[in-house]
Amino acid sequence: TAQLIDGTRIAREVRARVAAEVAEFRERTGVIPGLATILVGEDPASEVYVRNKRRLAVETGMADLHRHLDADVTQPAVAAIIEELAHDDAVSGILLQLPLPQHLESGPLIDLIPALKDVDGLTTLSAGLLARGRPGLRPCTPSGVITLIDSTGISLEGLNAVVVGRSELVGGPMSRLLLERNATVTTAHSRTRDLVAVASEADVLIAAAGVPHLIGPEHVKPGAIVIDVGIHRTESGLIGDVRFDEVSPIAGWLTPVPGGVGPMTIATLLANTVTAARMRADQRMLTRLGP
Ligand code: NAD
């Protein structure tokens, strides 16, 4: 049976490393890295996510700079708040929790976040930097998936990686991050004709379709690394895109839901926030030294 990739444990290790980096940064610069979270409305799932992000930011020694906006807030009002945070020196990272209420357009709001504070890695500029292979902040969920794969000790170079999903948030950047590691990457999606044929060639299979229990043993090459990004609330608890019990006897490595990708996403957000704080401090130092 597959070895379990313990996202809860690996996320705890990442957070401990982030806490040490935050302490070092505070010592060196006198600045406390600050994470600004923006929550619009009362979506219960989003409330839980934001609460966890804020709690763990504080636990790693960062400042929690939260804004809660009414569900009927206007687009210009949200824009004004993002611009205020963009110019606020106490803010190292800005996270606009998605999804937003129907009447708000998320794309233009996200793009008001400066690339140096884009800890979710979702602005057009950050996506472009990733596409070009240039340094920048990377989206948290796919970046956390890379950390989970690295924890197996297996090198991605030259392996067949199949990503099921091509969203801007997960599947798209996931494929590019795997390519950056020199995997041979295939992106499958809802129009893929024969998912079983494509997926069963994968040495590394990333399930990010958002379809409960889509992936079964027929999709999995024996010994493969299988990462389950899906999260679905059911009456019997959280389930993923992968039928864990059926895939476990075939896969070499497998992430559980819950306790896999979920905790890694938040740990990566915190890692991005301290990276963002450092990048800005270094940039200030550069301009001070520059002509
Ligand atoms: P999305 O709906 O935006 O995108 C889903 C993608 O999967 C699309 O590109 C679509 O083409 C593809 N797809 C849909 N049905 C398919 C099928 N039958 N076969 C092949 N491809 C198919 O969703 P998303 O935002 O990318 O999120 C995907 C899943 O990951 C969701 O379950 C979401 O809840 C979860 N998620 C988890 C985390 C985390 O931290 N663990 C973070 C973000 C999203």
TrEMBL record:
Tetrahydrofolate dehydrogenase/cyclohydrolase NAD(P)-binding domain residues: 139-279
Organism encoding this protein: Naasia lichenicola
GO biological process entries: L-histidine biosynthetic process; methionine biosynthetic process; purine nucleotide biosynthetic process; tetrahydrofolate interconversion
A Pfam family of this chain: THF_DHG_CYH
Catalytic activity: (6R)-5,10-methenyltetrahydrofolate + H2O = (6R)-10-formyltetrahydrofolate + H(+); (6R)-5,10-methylene-5,6,7,8-tetrahydrofolate + NADP(+) = (6R)-5,10-methenyltetrahydrofolate + NADPH
Keywords, comma-separated and alphabetical: Amino-acid biosynthesis, Histidine biosynthesis, Hydrolase, Methionine biosynthesis, Multifunctional enzyme, NADP, One-carbon metabolism, Oxidoreductase, Purine biosynthesis
GO molecular function: methenyltetrahydrofolate cyclohydrolase activity; methylenetetrahydrofolate dehydrogenase (NADP+) activity
Residue span(s) of domain Tetrahydrofolate dehydrogenase/cyclohydrolase catalytic: 5-120
Record's GO cellular component terms: cytosol
Name used for this protein in its record: Bifunctional protein FolD
UniProt-listed HAMAP family: THF_DHG_CYH (MF_01576)
Role of this protein: Catalyzes the oxidation of 5,10-methylenetetrahydrofolate to 5,10-methenyltetrahydrofolate and then the hydrolysis of 5,10-methenyltetrahydrofolate to 10-formyltetrahydrofolate.
PANTHER family: C-1-TETRAHYDROFOLATE SYNTHASE, CYTOPLASMIC, C-1-TETRAHYDROFOLATE SYNTHASE, CYTOPLASMIC-RELATED
Keyword Amino-acid biosynthesis recorded: yes
Annotated EC: 1.5.1.5, 3.5.4.9
Name of the gene encoding the protein in the UniProt record: folD
Annotated metabolic or biological route of this protein: One-carbon metabolism; tetrahydrofolate interconversion
Binding site for NADP(+): 165-167, 231
Keyword Oxidoreductase in record: yes
Family to which this protein belongs: Belongs to the tetrahydrofolate dehydrogenase/cyclohydrolase family.
Subunit structure and binding partners: Homodimer.
